[in-house]
């Protein structure tokens, strides 16, 4: 009886013992490998969920052993060689069975799974998860990526290469330290250029989405079209409602969703580039409310039976990227000088005016000034909100050129949203939540 009690007590100790970090890493590696193998399993490839999961798990085991002994390093290297050999065999087998030529996707995916397991086991969890997610997206979006590549002409391909060179070759050449202009310290030019490239990248991604799914519904037309170019959305909707006055509800909803896209983009810029400092959490409630309210308003306003294509100008253009960079630089200089000469009110005025041209540029300017310590979180938050509000108002002004019903609805919904967001923000400020 005493031996049985001892066994039960030992079992209790095992169950209550916390999982070690190594065990958690092994489990995570296997799960990420399984995640990578889902698409291959769905596509009925020879390597599926189990193969990918085991590949990541074996890599994690070898990597953990490698941290303790030289034998583990050898095992990790041998495992990598075996994965490469297995990938080659799978590629040749696929070519013989399908007769459609050499396909290396599954082979490269297995190598990615091995790399993910290694990264996770060595403690690079975020990097491993990032590789797994990006690799999975590349597998799932095969049709969309091939379709986009097929629609690009030679000029766009050349411009893409030029933009990539300018974006990623110029980045390390720019100074990383801050500098002072008119007595105001500006954050590093390298960070400023990264923000320009980020905004340009958002435009490219959303151009691809609209090209692939454009005309298939108001969500794509308004939201993703608005992320690529909100002015293009308004212009297209004006033309559409002039030709089809009865379809004005579709146009109103598209404009509202363009506002939602703009708010989400500005919120993302404000949070992402201040996460390492004290994040600008004050923008979350106002911009989040504008985004949610815009979606609700668009839902009620939309005519879901309408479908419209938006002719967007290709973002695969070095000229367009440099044009945005110039606008951003101009807004940055104006905002800096205004803040230096006129104080916080000067910054607010320049942000509001800049929002009529580019709320993204005004937002990045406020973020850079905040990062450098030139302005506080309150001033940066107000500047971003003013730029966002003026961007909403400029769509109202552009909408005045449309039919009466369209103009009236856009004005009412837009001003109503701004009023609700303003009241909510004011209430939360008073009670001390924001």
Question: Low-confidence parts, pLDDT < 50 over ≥5 residues?
Answer: 7-19
Count the strands?
Answer: 2
% residues in beta strands: under 5%
Total domain count: 2
- Net shape: globular
Order of helices and strands: HHHHHHHHEEHHHHHHHHH
- Report on the biggest sheet: 2 strands, antiparallel
C-alpha Rg, in Å?
27 Å
Cα distance spanning the termini: 63 Å
Count the DSSP helices: 17
Strand order of the largest sheet: 1-2
Mean pLDDT: 73
Residues in helices, as a percent range: over 70%
Based on helices, strands and strand pairing, what is the structural class?
mainly alpha
Features:
mainly alpha; 434 residues; MgtC/SapB/SrpB/YhiD_fam; transmembrane; transmembrane helix; single chain; 2 domains
Quick take:
By secondary structure, the chain is mostly helical. Helices cover 79% and strands 1% of the residues.
Q: What does this molecule look like?
A:
The protein is mostly helical and 434 residues long. The chain has 2 domains: 123 residues, no CATH class; 278 residues, no CATH class. 79% of the residues lie in helices and 1% in strands. The protein is built from 17 helices and 2 strands. A two-stranded antiparallel sheet has the order 1-2. A hairpin with a 2-residue loop joins strand 1 and strand 2. About 3% of the residues have low confidence. It is found in: Cell membrane. It holds the Pfam family DUF4010.
What's the topology here?
Blueprint: H1 2-16, H2 21-42, H3 49-66, H4 70-98, H5 105-121, H6 125-140, H7 142-151, H8 154-173, E1 179-181, E2 184-186, H9 189-213, H10 218-243, H11 248-272, H12 284-301, H13 318-342, H14 344-355, H15 359-371, H16 377-399, H17 404-431
Antiparallel strand pairs: 1-2
Helix pairs in contact: 2-3, 2-5, 2-6, 3-4, 3-5, 4-5, 5-6, 8-9, 9-10, 9-13, 9-15, 10-11, 11-12, 11-15, 11-16, 11-17, 12-17, 13-14, 13-15, 14-15, 14-16, 15-16, 16-17
